Amino acid sequence: MTKYYPLLLFISLFICPSSSLGNGIDYPLSNKSSVVDDYHGYLIKDPYRDLENLDSADTKLWIRNQNIFSQSFLKQINQQQEFKQILENIFDKESQSIPFRKKTKYFSWYNNGSWQQSKLFYSNNLNSIKTLLLDPNVLSKDGTISIGSVSISPNAELIAYSISDGGSDWKTWKIRNIDTKKDLPDTIKWSKFSGAEWAKDNSGFYYSRYSEPKTGDEYEELNRNQTLFFHSIGESQSNDKLIYERPDKPEWGWGTTVTEDGSYLLLSVSEGTDERNRIFYKDLRTENNSFIELIPELIGQFIFLGNIGSEFLFFTDFKAPKGTIISIDINNPQKTNWKTLVAEADDALTRVELLDNYILCQYLKDVSSEILLFNKKTFSKKKISFDKKGIISGITTTQDSDVFYFSFTNYIQPNEIYQYNATNDRINLLWKKQVPDYKPADYLSKQLFYPSKDGTLIPMYISYKKDINLDHNTPLLLYGYGGFDISILPNFRERYLAWMKMGGMVAVPNLRGGGEYGEEWHRQGMLDNKQNVFDDFIAAAEYLHGEKLSRPGRTVIEGRSNGGLLVGATMLQRPDLFGVALPGVGVMDMLRFNKFTIGWAWESDYGSPEDKQGFETLVQYSPYHNIEMGECYPPTLVTTSELDDRVVPSHSYKFTARLQEAQNCQNPILIRIETRAGHGAGTPRDKTINYISDVYGFAFHYLLQN
What we know:
The chain is α+β, with helices and mostly antiparallel strands. It has 11 helices and 39 strands. Strands 32-33-35-34-36-37-38-39 form an 8-stranded mixed β-sheet, sandwiched between helices.
């Protein structure tokens, strides 16, 4: 039975002294403090506040001791080595990205299967010999320095690329001459959550940055007051021109676009992670003119697609929660003059691209992709003739051609890359990923729908090897996310294949809070509706158990980031329903998530603890605050990284310390703290394999004991 506590009773649990319980496991010492915070008249203890001090000697010792302790467990698990062998075999094969074109050059990322990081190559056509342009593997011996994003100049002579050290969100930008393969002296530091948008005359690019943080606070300090600059090629960063800032609006951030004709600079003005945005623009044809606020209020999401003179085209969910395409004439910008070009459909519109003669619209129909092409002149539509069920992603296009490239995958189909010509409706397979010792025909992936607690039907994919005997003993991996308008799509993942090769089943429900069915689906899982997400996840397990496809003791739950919050909350609400819990880089302290780096931006999805109503919602499910002394929780392996400056690792530290203190049975509570890694992006091959081997080996070991 799910446990819900009246607020006053709940608070009382944390104003009484607590003591370490005798559970037979001698965990490393976690120092406690007497910190008590007053939230709207409620006194909340925070006994492990000291673990927020990431640079203190005590915290560093705690990290060292916890890692030693956890590894002593993990090294004894046979399944860890079994997973590692499977994964090394799977990863030992080439992979490549979808090609993208700039002028006459084609660019793509490629990995021969042994490199820690993929390398960027280019060629003059798709069939010619490729030339190496960027090799991140030379940046560090262990592959922990990676290349984040790249941006090619309009004339295809220069490339701006961002470097991340240890997976941090902080990026350093460099510029390379494509023909000579030599870097220019230009260096741009302290950029975060920013691309590089080139001026059409190739003179430089627009980028966003924050103020340089205090030494020692690089991974904790709040990131506010993002500023927009223009960097001129060949100049020092100190000479970069300030384009826009709003110190009166420290929560605003900037996404920039220069129109194809070079006439306008557009700002997509975000406010935290709220999917709604403002649109400002500036006429670049005149000097020193200011930005004009085209859409000054947060009324919906507006994604700029392109322009025809003064007519701006946008994808938007304004008065259309599943998405539509409109045009706004900036000379007559009143809402009454807005024109609908592509009307809202029954399915969620997830992506729009402009081709030469067509508007490409990608829809999500019950978590499977469909692409319609609308003629720009007649707006007649046609569906591309691609009958495979799964996800089309990574579409690359140019507005001077009707040819585009895309990848296709699902849970059991490795990545395929295609070229499509809209003129003749022809699809060509360019590349197909080969996986050693694997035949998709030997596996099954199917979608089903199950009712959540309130009766809402939730879609879920289950995938497994055909020859396994599905019953109550099936090792079940239940993965979830459920938030921030992010859709969890059926992509082929090496980690899932490894689980299936070990005889397990993978289940991925599409929880509310995501974007699978448009903005309404998102809103049903945010703010005071957040419990719906946990109920959806719990109901998925109950359904699969009821169908005799597994049972509680053979079920592991996994999620990362917001999904880590999901796992933390549900394992506490229903410890009886799961055999193992794997919360990764999770948001665990819902009363202090907004105190570090970019955490404040998540208030649009979570609410704010500084608001009384927000606090009363958050405190009811915050993992750190809902741990019960004397409870028996399932074996748990918490994972985080020392350099995670997205969800700071103190979330996981505090949660682990409190869970270890409360645990009153032999089920281990462990934490795996990765070094030289961040929130997940840019993780090298070997670290990825070791991570998956540890967490899935741990899970399998304890599931098989039940």
